[in-house]
Amino acid sequence: MELAEKIYAAVRLIPRGKVATYSQIAALVGNRNLRRYVGNALHKNPSNSVTPCHRVVNAKGFCSGSFAFGGPDIQQEKLEAEGVLFVDGHVDMERFEITPDDFEMMRASLV
User: Fold this and answer.
1) Largest CA distance in the chain
2) pLDDT tens digits along 19-77
3) Buried b (16+ CB within 10 A) or exposed e, 35-73
4) Element (H, E) at 87
5) Which one of 72, 76, 98, 103 has the minimum C-beta count within 10 Å?
6) Across the strands, what pairs with 97?
7) Secondary structure of 16-69 in the HEC alphabet?
8) Is the dihedral of CA 64, 19, 78, 51 positive or negative?
């Protein structure tokens, strides 16, 4: 499986109403330092309806400034529609970031 396909598979495992960071997705596919590659792959995501890349945010919980699927505000709108709350313009990471248990479940599902 190509790296981009592994990234898409990992993103599809993020539970609805949760977010993961670019670094977390990179770690799930084998190298935490590939976070920029993750962002690039998600920008090229062929199907947001299949791979919910709107659930990936930066380490501080900020959305992409140029969300590729309809403009910069669409990512936040999609997350809010799933019940994700924002504080001062970023995701409330304490409440909505994937948990260590979520991460381990996702890792096990990718093997």
Assistant:
1) 39
2) 999 999 999 999 989 999 999 999 888 787 789 999 999 999 999 876 666 777 889 99
3) bebbbebbeebeebeebbbbbbbbeebebbeebebeeee
4) strand 86-87
5) 72
6) 19
7) CCCEEEHHHHHHHCCCHHHHHHHHHHHHCCCCCCCCCHHHEECCCCCCCCCCCC
8) positive
Asked if residue 5 lies in contact with residue 105, where contact means CB atoms within 8 angstroms, the answer is: no
CA-wise closest residue to 93 among 38, 19, 26, 23: 19
Query: What are the φ and ψ backbone dihedral angles of 110, each rounded to 5 degrees?
Result: -85, -15
User: 3 by DSSP, 3-state: which?
Assistant: helix
Tell whether pTM > 0.85: yes
Question: Cα–Cα distances in Å, from 34 out to 41, 47, 73?
Answer: 11, 21, 25
Task: Give the up-direction half-sphere exposure of residue 16: CA atoms within 13 A in the CB hemisphere.
Answer: 6
Chain centroid to CA 33: 15
Residue 86 CB-density burial (10 A; 0-12 exposed, 13-18 middle, 19+ buried) = middle
